[in-house]
Amino acid sequence: MCLSAITDACASILNPNDSFDGRILWCANGTTALTTVLRAVKAASRGKDKKVLIPTCVCPHVYVAVLAAGLEPIMVATDPYNNYALDWMALEAYPSRGAMALLWVHQYGCMSHVEAVRQVCRAKDWVVIEDAALAFGATTHAGVAGTLGDCGIFSFGKGKVICADYGGAIVLKNATNAAHALPGLAKAIENEWTSFNRKATADDCEENFHLFARELRHRYNNLYSDFRSGACATHFQSILYECTDIVKPLNEERLLTCLKPEMILQGTMLAARRKARADWLSNELSSANVTIVHHVDGTYWRLNVLVDKQKRHCLLKKAISQRLEMSSWYPPLYWMVADATIIGHTSKEVEFADTVLNIWVDGIEDWESYSKKLLQLFDDACK
How many domains are contained in the chain? Predict the structure, then answer.
């Protein structure tokens, strides 16, 4: 088997059209794919500050990709209650030359505000990089995730729609038909990808990210007030600077071993199943004293529920002790990055972080039993 087989399978899910002709570049992981695109944007852009706009509430891998590309992140406040909408007023007020690109992340697989993203980026002449790492196979009225920006990236690592434990992809667009594009962007991405992948390696060291994850879990669960205040930011930032070792050249043999065409062809079905599971679980928990955060389009990585602020930490610890699949939310990046540059109002995401819990929608064998245990957990908390 060769790369063309998984490329064809992936293209069949993405539905090639006038703006996407099926060109896909394969990478070691989603972080490498994003880093490659960001480096290409930096190389092709002229007359713009070497900065990229990113949402405040995203996976730290996004921040690492920006660092690895040699760009400065400008964090844009979001509204988690409204499908993670960016602060449009802040973006409209931000100078056009102040950034090269906007990184449009489908947080938790939620696809939303497509036209708003396109409109503001056209007006500002920013490249739209679509991070669809958590949304492979998901669709909205505008099209398929990964094909809606000037270029798109996917991940096939742990926790993704297709969990192959290895692999990422870059979706290239036809510049002449894209909604907005930097002239020569696709060629610049291809050049950067070719240069970076001249020497493949079998190594895939993620030790620093494992350390980061352990530290994040510990401080979030046991030192939340310090963590929330940003008192731990310098510590976390120093670890994240070391995490750029996750950016690796492609090991084609490993990719072909881990990621099969038949796995990719299940993408749309898996995305729909995630959404259906989340909808079912949401209905099951409707009698509990929680608020379910609904999304408009896309798939779900986790189902977000809102609980009483004073009880959230206690609930999380009880769930962990009972081995229920529940976790904390990815907190705002500025809690983990010292001296972060932020635009927009962050009050909603801070309020959200204080009250949200994540319930898994993957990897559950007995859904009936799982939902009953969750209901009991929430009921006990209300007594």
Answer: 3
